[in-house]
Every structure is written in structure tokens, then in C-alpha cells.
Write the C-alpha cells for this entry.
Amino acid sequence: MIVAGVMSGTSADGIDVALVRITGKGYKLRLKLLGHRHFAYPASVRAAVLAAMNADQISVAELSRLNFLLGELYAEAVQKTTQRTGIAKVDLIGCHGQTIYHQGEPAVYRGRKIASTWQTGEGAVVAARCGIPVVSDFRTADMAAGGKGAPLVPFLDYVLFRDRRAGRIVQNLGGIANLTAIPANAKPEQVIAFDSGPSNMVIDQLTQILFGQSYDRDGKIAAGGHILESVVNTVLRNPFFARKPPKTAGREEFGAAFTQQFLRQCGKAAKADVIATATTLTAVSIADALKRLVLPREKEGAYRDYIVSGGGVNNKTLMAMLAQEASALGLKLKRTDDFGIPSQAKEAVAFAVLAYQTWHRKPANIPSATGADKPAVLGKICYA
Ligand SMILES: Nc1ncnc2c1ncn2[C@@H]1O[C@H](COP(=O)(O)OP(=O)(O)O)[C@@H](O)[C@H]1O
Ligand SMILES: [Mg+2]
């Protein structure tokens, strides 16, 4: 099958589409990336998406319209990708949608303990416009099975990166930093995966507030700033970082409220220092998670490779910090690009693979990663 994977992450930067040829089934499936494209959200759409994540202030009418609008934009992104790559025959689309709310941990609501998640972007619209069946809304089935609904990319990580001899840690640097640790010769149930905290999300918000830019391009601002070590150490005391996996994070944890407090903690520091400090928080919180929650579970030296992807690989300051942290932990820093998967395309590839599994009525959550009681067939299908 040729499957289009469509991803738009918590950064709300835009839409990534990957066209993937997939054969075989389950953990033995094989894939070849045929092409990928990125489409930035127009500024007004980005503003609407960010507003929709502000749960207390958004109206139901706005959410309803946004669902259909995003359906149109996802469909256009798929169509443009097939035109530009010259790959006409797509059999299936896997569309993650835009997360506007995610609460992985059950909490009392109207007398019952409820966890919930919401990805918007209407699959029926994508299916109708493209004339191709669409799988969307992947996270709910995992949650219904007692999982946190995330992370779901570990299925792809396990398919692509498991190795007989070397333990590997696969790290995505999106808005949130999430990692998948695969011990050498691991069975799926030995995979550990969780969100360690922010990757670009806090840097992006602070760069917007202080410099009026949506991100710190190539990490140039951070490169010129001094690091406020005491702020990093204070923030690391936030209980999220010490909590044992499974755990997930989003704008609920590291959005506007967190960023405002971070700014206050930086006091009168120079603007570039704030960005340098936020960048350090990302690198140090990741290293801390590796040290506390991943590496001690195996023999020393059992993990060899640290394989990164996501928009954050373009932040040279962040990458330099991560290279230093990885080498101190005895890990070799690599990129998914070294394995034939471009950094920016990986998550889109993952949702192509997840859709393919669903189409064959096969599960694609890894219960040890999400905390689900059992494997679940993920998503909802809209037939064209
Ligand atoms: N040239 C660059 N320099 C620094 N950061 C970048 C660059 N390009 C992309 N990014 C970062 O990557 C983010 C998007 O990464 P992405 O993997 O798409 O995350 P998400 O899955 O959350 O959408 C941007 O918001 C930005 O922070
Ligand atoms: Mg993105």
C-alpha cells in the first residue's frame, strides 16, 4: 500500500505529509519513504489553533468550524504532496489531527475519574476531498484501554530502530520532547517511552514574547545568551520531571502559564539569556530523564545510539548542548536522517504506519509506552 501520513504537532507550526510504501505486517512490516513535504499554517490559522488550545476561552462554534477548516487544509496538503512528488496513487491516509486538549491522567470530573484527549481535523472532509479512505483520531482507543493515549510513535521506532546488539534511544524534538528507549534485542513490552518535558515549546513561546519571532531560528539567539543555572535548577524541581513513566506532556503542562512563571523566575535577565536558559532547560531535562528513568534500567553501556528527529534538530545551540549531554552519558548522537528518515518527516511517517495497521485491524499502541491494559486497534475510519 502507499499511505500518506499527515502530522501537525503541538508546535502548531504547520502540516507535515509523508508518502510511504508499506508491505508486510506488524513489527515485521517494511517501509520506504517516497516523499515528504511541510506546509506552514497561515498566520491566522496558527492563531486559531493556539487559541483553541486555550480551553477556558474558546467557544464550541469556533471548535466546530476549526475541525472542518483543518480537514480542508489537511486534504490540500495531501493533494499538493502527491502533485509535487508525482506520486498519484495513494491507497490510504493516516491523519493525526491537531491536539487541542490532552489529559492523559484520569482526574475526577462530575463524580467520575476521567482522562480525555481531543484531536481535531475532520477525517470525513479529508476522505471526501481526496477520494481516499482516512484513519484519524488514533489516541482515543488507547485511552479507552486505560492508556495515556500517547506516545504512539514508539510503534514506528520499534519497527525501524530495534537492533539485536545495540540499545537505542530515539528522541523526537517537537514542541514536546519524547523519547523511545529500545534495549538491545528487546521485545515490544520492554520498550520504554515517555515525554520528558518541553523541547521547542517553551523556547518558541519566549522567543515570540521577547523577540516577536515564532522560534529561535538555528538557535542564534540562545547562542548569544548566558545561562541562568539557578533558574534551570529551580524549574527542574517541578514534580513532572521526577515522575515515573508512563507520562505525557503538552501545552497543559508547558504552555502559557508555565512560560509566564519561567519569565518571572528569570527576573531582569537580558532577553537572550532567557532564551539560552530555556534552551538549556530542554537539554538538561532530557539528560536528567535519561539518567534517572532510562539508563539505570539496563547494564552500563547497554545503550549505544541516541537518534534524534523533529524540528528541534535545526536549533544548533540545542543540538550542541544535547551532543555534550549524550557524550557524557556514553551515547552516540545520530539523526534519523542517517537511517533514511528525514528529521522533519518522522512523525508523519509514523501516522502512515499506524493507519496501515488499523486498516489491517491490527493494534499499534505499545502498552508499555502508553500504560494501556492491552494492545488496541487505533483510530476511526472514514471511507471515501
Ligand atoms: N531552523 C530552525 N531553527 C530552530 N528551530 C527550528 C527550526 N526549524 C524548526 N524549528 C523548531 O521546530 C518546531 C517544529 O518542530 P516539529 O517537529 O514540527 O514539532 P511539532 O511536532 O510539535 O509540530 C518549530 O516550532 C521550531 O521550534
Ligand atoms: Mg510540526
